[in-house]
Amino acid sequence: MENLRKKLVESALEWECVFGNAPCITSAISELDAALILGASAEEYSVSMQGMTSVRKGYDFRFNGARYQVKANRPSGKSGSFVTLVGKARNYEWDYLIWVLYNPKYEVQEAWLWEVSAYKAAFDTVMRLSPSHYRQGRRLA
Questions:
Q1: Which top-rank group of organisms is this from (predicted)?
Q2: Residue 50, Cβ neighbours under 10 Å: how many?
Q3: Concatenated DSSP letters for 54-72?
C-alpha cells in the first residue's frame, strides 16, 4: 500500500512536468497522510474507507471513534508559488480538523489539529484563513 501512494505522487509530478499543472490528488493524499499521522496503519485506513464516497458531508474519515475533516495545501514550487489561502470548513459535523501543508513533492511539512469547538470559536466569523491561522492549533507534524 505504501508503494501505491509513491506511484500516485510520481505520476502526478510527471503529469505536472508534461502538462504544467498537477492533477488534483491533494485531497486523497492528505486524508491518508492525516490518518497515518494519527497512528492509523494504511491497512486500517483502507478498511475504514471501503464503501465511502469522496463527497460525504461533514467529515473525511473516522479513527478511534472520532470524525476527522482534512484540509491541505501544496505549492507547485513555481516562482511565486506559496500558500497564502487555506480551505475553511463549511460545516461543523466533525470532531477534529487536520490541516496538512506539503512541499511541491507532496512531502508533509506541517500538520495541525483543531477540535471543532475551538475551531468554530476561532474562525466562524473569519472569511479568509491563512496558514498562520491554522498554526494556532496543536502541531502534529
A1: Bacteria
A2: 6
A3: TT-SS-SEEETTEEEEEEE
Quote the CA–CA distance of 28 and 81 in Å, as a whole number. Answer: 21
Beta strand spans in 13-135 (E): 61-63, 66-73, 96-102, 108-115
Residue 84 DSSP SS3:
coil
pLDDT the model gives residue 115: 98
pLDDT in tens, 67-102: 999 999 999 888 778 899 999 999 999 999 999 999
The predicted model gives 11-35 an average pLDDT of 96
Q: Which amino acid is at 71?
A: K
Question: Grid coordinates in use for 101?
Answer: 501543508
Q: Compute the C-alpha angle 135/82/141, nearest 5°.
A: 35
What does the alpha-carbon distance between residue 58 and residue 45 come to, in Å, rounded to a whole number?
18
The predicted pLDDT at position 52 comes to 83
